[in-house]
Design a protein that fits this description.
The protein folds into seven domains: 88 residues, Roll (Ubiquitin-like (UB roll)); 78 residues, Ubiquitin-like (UB roll) (Roll), CATH 3.10.20.310; 83 residues, Ubiquitin-like (UB roll) (Roll), CATH 3.10.20.310; 76 residues, membrane protein fhac (Ubiquitin-like (UB roll), Roll); 73 residues, Roll (Ubiquitin-like (UB roll)); 122 residues, no CATH class; 124 residues, Porin, CATH 2.40.160. It contains twelve helices and 35 strands. Strands 18-19-20-21-22-23-24-25-26-27-28-30-31-32-33-35 form a 16-stranded antiparallel barrel. It has a three-stranded mixed sheet with strand order 2-5-4, with helices on one face. Strands 6-8-7 form a three-stranded mixed sheet, with helices on one face. The longest helix has 17 residues. The radius of gyration is 38 Å and the shape is elongated. The N terminus is likely disordered.
């Protein structure tokens, strides 16, 4: 079209060239230039000094200059032996203003306009502006806004420039008034409409807005619904969309042909399958005698392709061909398998690690050199590197080895993150009150992958000093070793529980054994000494425990045995969106300790991705502890509590429990030996920024309670609350806020609707 326009323009403006006898051009003079450079004109002008020209040459020159699109008028004249070129430049676009757009963001619109050639600094073309007008309307039509009005104007500015303004009146989206389905015999129209999105009633009873993309998705849903139920010859013959005169309502009519139901006559596999016997049978999800299902055939093809890729055949080709018998209404499926060539990894190359030692990275890899390339092993290797926390990014490439058809290199490029920190912080917690924290930690000490940390916490509740060192690869098999020493003082009264103080000194050594990529078992041995310090206001229950257990010196030496089994399939450790984390724990003061007891715990967390930016999280925790041997009861400093921002929000910290059995003589919480905590949480999209990953807003239902050893276990006593919560991983620390309303509180319960924890590091 542009070429045709330039030809027409050159014909129309041919009269702008004076008719003259052929002559030799001694010089060329340009007139009318404002923005276009002289060099640009001479680059496009087919006439040079010294050329002998005639009328045909001047017409060709005019055509060439018009073709550039820079000029709205071109004229050639002769002054003696000088060729004079007069031009009138088209205006340049100085600015583009878009108004009234809401459905389509301005940045997205400007990018689309730029791709079409309409952008600031370009030469203005009115015909292009008309094209933009029509294209914008088409885009809004696809979104169901058939009443959209687009007005485009070009306002002249000084220095031969224009300001382009695009005004959009989007109007209301057309609503789906009715969806008609014609041709269905087996399934009712109501059943089919339930599979679709367009006929759905909105959240507040209104009709759904029409969208061309949604209709296309609904048609594919109908096709899948039939073809997964044996209708292999199902077809959608046509779909019509009609508008009411006011363009506010849409009628959709779908014409379909169901066909007959077909069952599977046989399933056979041809080709070099590589996978044999039972292993192959497990990958085939559709079998003889079943109804034909497109979903199952797709799963079968994917299962075989994925398995071949795990075995070193990344370029396999798996196709399933149906053979239909109309008389018996059966289908024979033939699975053709071409594994392609097997590919091996020649060399693993690691780049980007400036601090982390090469062996620290390689020990996490499950794809080895000289082994066949496995997509599963490559993916696992990348996941394990991400879980170390040492890297911001891990990029993997598998380029082919030059001159080889069956070898690739595995190139790993990592971007390291800062793994060391020195911080001093102050904050506030509804559990611990005002607090001061000092921490010196290095997760990747000296680039060797070890974690070394020194911590000092000082609050009105706790004063703690600790040192720990974790070696995740104490052995080459991945057995970890953790050593820690601890000095801690807890003022229980400041934590809103019974009035006593504990002074604890402990040293622990534990080992972790990986059972698989997602399961791990930890065993530990610790030596601990805990002293109970009383005062004149200490409750009688604390004195009773001391009197029954070494009343001469309430310093208790404990030989602690710990074990933990974990199962972790979460996609990430912070703000996961899918997967599960399960754990079973056991802690016991071994025979020979001054106090003998054991504690058992179970934790289960499951994350369900519901939709984009929506996650449903479920949590259940069960705990039980009891004394054995000559010890009278579970020590006060080992008991369980519930209530507060870390357990059941909406109830005061540590306040839940039977007043008669879990309170001391002063009426303060004493704790129990059994506990249940549960929660159901719906994580919502970030209302402040859809790109921020540091903030999580959620609604929740919490439940929990504790029981003393003499209490009858009654789940009817469990307290519940509901509310909203916000967690923000801010540059200054982690901030947690919750606002909760108890659902079944009793008059004796202590409530606290708003709870928070604030931290600040500098």
């Amino acid at each position: 079209m542009k070429k045709l326009a330039s030809i027409i323009a050159s014909i129309l403006y041919a009269s702008h060239a004076y008719a003259f006898e052929p002559f030799t051009v001694k010089d060329i003079r340009l007139e009318g230039l404002q923005r276009i450079s002289v060099g640009t004109i001479f680059n496009y002008l087919p006439i040079k000094v010294g050329d002998k020209i005639d009328d045909g040459d001047t017409s060709q020159a005019i055509h060439a200059l018009y073709k550039t699109g820079f000029f709205k008028d071109v004229r050639l004249e002769r002054e003696g032996d000088v060729l004079v070129v007069f031009v009138a430049e088209r205006p340049a676009i100085a600015e583009i203003n878009i108004k009234g757009n809401d459905k389509i963001p301005t940045d997205q619109l400007k990018t689309a306009l730029k791709d079409m050639g309409l952008t600031e600094g370009r030469v203005f073309d009115q015909s292009l502006l008309d094209t933009v007008n029509q294209e914008l309307k088409r885009q809004y039509y696809s979104l169901g806004k058939y009443g959209v009005k687009v007005t485009t104007t070009a306002k002249p500015l000084e220095r031969n420039r224009v300001a382009v303004t695009i005004s959009i009146a989007e109007g209301k989206e057309a609503e789906v008034y009715q969806v008609n389905i014609i041709g269905n015999k087996t399934f009712t129209t109501k059943t089919l409409l339930h599979q679709m999105t367009l006929p759905d009633i909105g959240l507040f009873g209104g009709r759904e807005n029409y969208s061309r993309q949604v209709l296309a998705g609904d048609l594919e849903t109908l096709r899948s619904y039939y073809m997964d139920r044996g209708y292999i010859k199902f077809s959608i013959d046509s779909s019509q969309v009609s508008l009411t005169p006011d363009k506010q309502d849409v009628y959709v009519t779908i014409n379909l042909t169901e066909g007959n139901v077909y069952t599977i006559r046989e399933v056979k596999v041809l080709g070099d399958t590589v996978i044999k016997g039972d292993d192959l049978e497990k990958l085939i999800t559709i079998h003889k005698g079943e109804l034909f299902s497109r979903q199952k055939t797709t799963e079968t093809r994917k299962n075989i392709s994925d398995r071949l890729a795990e075995l070193g055949y990344p370029f396999s080709n798996v196709n399933i061909a149906p053979e239909i018998d109309e008389d018996s209404r059966t289908v024979a499926l033939t699975v053709y398998v071409d594994p392609g060539r097997r590919v091996y990894v020649r060399r693993v190359n690691v780049t980007g690690n400036k601090k982390t030692r090469d062996e620290v990275i390689r020990r996490e890899l499950r794809q080895y050199e000289s082994d066949w390339l496995s997509t599963k092993k490559v993916a696992t290797s990348r996941e394990r590197l991400n879980r170390t926390g040492f890297f911001e990014e891990v990029n993997v490439e598998t380029p082919a080895v030059p001159g080889s058809v069956d070898q690739v290199d595995l190139n790993l490029n990592v971007k390291e993150r800062s793994t060391g920190s020195l911080s001093f912080g102050v904050g506030y917690s509804d559990v611990q009150g005002a607090l001061i924290n000092f921490a010196l930690s290095q997760d990747n000490f000296m680039g060797g992958g070890k974690r070394v940390s020194i911590n000092a916490d000082n609050s009105s509740v706790t004063r703690t000093y600790s040192f720990s060192i974790l070696d995740p690869y104490f052995t080459n098999d991945g057995i970890s070793q953790n050593f820690s020493i601890l000095s801690r003082q807890i003022d229980a009264a400041q934590a809103s529980i019974s009035n006593y103080v504990t002074n604890t000194k402990a040293v622990d050594l534990s080992y972790g054994i990986p059972m698989s990529e997602i399961t791990r078992i930890n065993f530990g041995l610790g030596l601990e000494q805990t002293e109970i310090v009383t005062s004149s206001t200490t409750a009688t229950q604390i004195y009773d425990f001391i009197n029954a257990n070494n009343n001469t010196d309430p310093k208790y030496k404990l030989y602690k045995l710990t074990s933990r089994w974990t199962y972790d399939t979460r996609d990430k450790a912070i703000f996961p969106t899918k997967g599960a984390l399960s754990s079973l724990t056991m802690e016991a003061a071994a025979p020979g300790s001054d106090l003998e007891f054991y504690k058992l715990g179970m934790q289960y967390r499951q994350y369900f991705p519901l939709a984009e930016d929506y996650t449903l999280a479920y949590n259940l925790g069960l705990d039980y502890g009891t004394a054995y041997g000559n010890t009278s009861d579970l020590p006060p400093f080992e008991r369980y509590f519930a209530g507060g921002s870390q357990s059941v929000r909406g109830y005061d910290t540590n306040s839940l429990g039977n007043l008669a059995t879990t309170r001391d003589s002063n009426g303060d919480p004493l704790g129990g030996n059994r506990r249940m905590l549960t929660s159901l949480e719906l994580v919502l999209p970030n209302p402040f920024s859809d790109k921020s990953k540091e903030l999580r807003l959620s609604t929740f239902i919490d439940g929990g309670y504790i029981w003393a050893k003499d209490d009858k276990l009654d789940l009817g006593e469990v307290r519940y609350s509901a509310g909203v919560a916000l967690i923000w991983i801010a540059p200054v620390g982690i901030l947690r806020f919750s606002l909760a309303e108890p659902l079944n509180a009793k008059p004796t319960d202590q409530l606290k609707a708003f709870q928070f924890t604030l931290g600040s590091a500098f």
